[in-house]
Amino acid sequence: MPWNESGGNKNPGPRNPWDRKPDGPADIDEAVRNLKRKLAGLFGSRGPRGPNPSQFGSLLALVVVGGWLATGFYQVGPAEKAVVTRFGRFQAIAGEGLNWRIPWPVDSRQLVNTQENVSSPDTQRMLTKDLALVDIYFTVQYRRADPKAFVFSIVEPERTLGEVAESAIRESVAQSPLDWVLENRRQEIATRTKQQIQHTLDGYNAGLEVLSVNLTDVKVPEQVAPLQKDAIKAREDQVRSQVEAQTYANDILPKARGDAAKQLLDAQAYRQSVIANAEGESARFAQLAAAYEKAPQVTRQRLYLETMEAVLGSATKVFIDLKGTGNTMYLPLDKLLEKRTQESMRPSTLPDVTVTPGPPRPDADKPGDARSSARGSR
């Protein structure tokens, strides 16, 4: 029997199964139509054909615009700053609290924590000033001090900080010997490295402030440790030898310079003495020549007596020839002078005796009639 034919039942239903209403919830289309009617009733107008489509579109646009504007609200934390840009260009820096911006794609914001102390550890192998190989373990602590410069100046400021720190620590270690790096001047190296990093970052306008640089550890690689010990010992021996040589030079050079100066002074003094003696002898000869011209006999006698006095004054032994006797008298003047000195040092017990010289002999002043003459002295 066809589905659309009626049977003999008093309440026949449609035999077509597609015409039966489902036993479940209301039809979806009917629910949508009811919703449209309710929304149209909100605007207070209902036409014979249902709600006005333009009013529904306005409501939908209002909802969309309101939701879009609501996305412009954002929260900034206590330690953060928000860098707001409009179409990629810097607009403002927002502080702590609830803020609003024109939603994307007009404005965008980037939060930067300006109070957080960030640590960046690193390890590098490098050479010291005395060509020693060391492994440097260091940490750089910094903060994002200028949010605008941090966002706009450099593409990757923190990566740039790592490269700058590596370059600065290599420069500082290359200017320091191994003992400075191991113990003595580690803090000085860290301070110099911090200043160099900050100077470079300020040149880049990176917006980062370096708080500290810490050399956490310095190790000598195990592969080269014995060789470096030998090299250090050799350098110490070299320094010690240089110090000893310098000490010897400091001791002998001043003495040599002093001796040279003394010899120069002695030579100058001898030169002046010879010149003065020559000038004196020349002046004396000129005076003698003038006196001889005036009194030749007296001058000859005086010169003879002065010469004999000079010769006999230094003689210790004198031999006198006694004319007509064939004998020679020997006078040991040194012994006589020594005996006289000893007697003068003894206490005198004899009374003082005054000796009055007799009258001079008439022929005593004539050098030609002298009975004795000096043969010489030994």
What does this structure look like?
The protein is α+β, with helices and mostly antiparallel strands and 378 residues long. The chain is built from nine helices and ten strands. The longest helix has 70 residues, at 225-294. The strands form four sheets. The chain has a three-stranded antiparallel beta sheet with strand order 3-2-5. Strands 6-7-8 form a three-stranded antiparallel beta sheet. Strands 1-4 form a two-stranded antiparallel sheet. Helices cover 49% and strands 20% of the residues. Among the domains are: 118-221, 2-Layer Sandwich (Tetrahydropterin Synthase, Chain A), CATH 3.30.479.30; 299-338, no CATH class.
Characteristic key phrases:
Tetrahydropterin Synthase, Chain A; 3-stranded antiparallel beta sheet; 49% helix; rod-shaped; disordered N terminus; disordered C terminus
Percent in strands? 15-25%
Looking at the structure, the CATH topology of the domain at 118-221 is Tetrahydropterin Synthase, Chain A
Mean of residue pLDDT values: 76
Label the structural class.
alpha+beta
Cα shape: rod-shaped
What is the ordering of alpha helices and beta strands? HHEEEEEEEHHHHEHHEEH
Strand order of the largest sheet: 3-2-5
Summarize the structure.
This protein is of the alpha+beta class and 378 residues long.
Give a topology summary:
Blueprint: H1 28-42, H2 53-70, E1 73-76, E2 80-86, E3 89-94, E4 97-100, E5 107-113, E6 118-127, E7 133-144, H3 147-152, H4 157-174, H5 178-184, H6 186-204, E8 208-219, H7 225-294, H8 296-313, E9 317-322, E10 327-332, H9 333-345
Antiparallel strand pairs: 1-4, 2-3, 2-5, 6-7, 7-8, 9-10
Helix pairs in contact: 4-6, 7-8
